[in-house]
Amino acid sequence: MKKILFCLLLLLSVGGCATSNGKHHAEIVDREVSRLTLPTKPLSSYSNFQINDMVLDNETLQKEDKTKVAKDLENKLQARLLPLLKEWTNDKQTGTLVIIPQLHKLHVVSAGARFWIGAMAGESRIDMDLKIVDAQSGKEIASPRIMTTASAMGGGWSVGATDKNLLKYIADIAYQYLKNNYN
């Protein structure tokens, strides 16, 4: 009986943590989006949207492991943003908005490093601009800088889960920024 009660309490506590993590994630995304610079023109004034391939910094281009993580980040961004941009596309022919993710710094601690040396592997960090340009004029509408980190201690305690979640945070921040500035 004690074992069953213990298991039920454990399941309830794990379920509670999962629920609060989703709420915590949304709060962090909202806080980060509120810090970003606003576009000079509402995104809804355009009828066509496209997202370009991610522009990588030199350091990332020179290291295969970083290039692989950057490609994973690009895939997450595209998966998150393309459905939204497709939803906004219409036949009004009022111009095209081009979104160009530009990576400035990428350091995501690997799962192996987290497992073997934990927090001593340091923090993970992604620094990226989401450059938004009017395709016809070439004029920049916005270029919010999205920077976020996963702490070394959090990475150590979670054995790398916070490092992996960093990519999702970046994609969610970009998505929420676009959504908030559409009208």
What sequence of helices (H) and strands (E) makes up the elements? HEHHEHEEEHH
Helix content: 40-55%
Q: Rough shape?
A: elongated
Largest sheet: 5 strands, mixed
SS-derived structural category: alpha+beta
Protein described:
The chain is an alpha+beta fold and 183 residues long. The chain has a single domain, classed as Rossmann fold (3-Layer(aba) Sandwich), CATH 3.40.50. It is built from 6 helices and 5 strands; from the N terminus they run αβααβαβββαα. Strands 1, 2, 3, 4 and 5 form a 5-stranded mixed beta sheet that branches. β3 and β4 form a beta hairpin. α3 packs parallel to α6. The N and C termini lie far apart (57 Å).
Set out the fold topology:
Blueprint: H1 2-34, E1 48-51, H2 58-62, H3 64-88, E2 96-107, H4 111-117, E3 124-134, E4 140-142, E5 145-150, H5 152-157, H6 161-180
Parallel strand pairs: 1-2
Antiparallel strand pairs: 2-3, 3-4, 3-5
Helix pairs in contact: 1-6, 3-6
Quickly describe the structure:
With about 180 residues, this protein is an alpha+beta fold. It has helices at about 1-35, 60, 65-90, 110-115, 150-155, 160-180; strands at about 50, 95-105, 125-135, 140, 145-150. The protein is built from six helices and five strands; from the N terminus they run H-E-H-H-E-H-E-E-E-H-H.
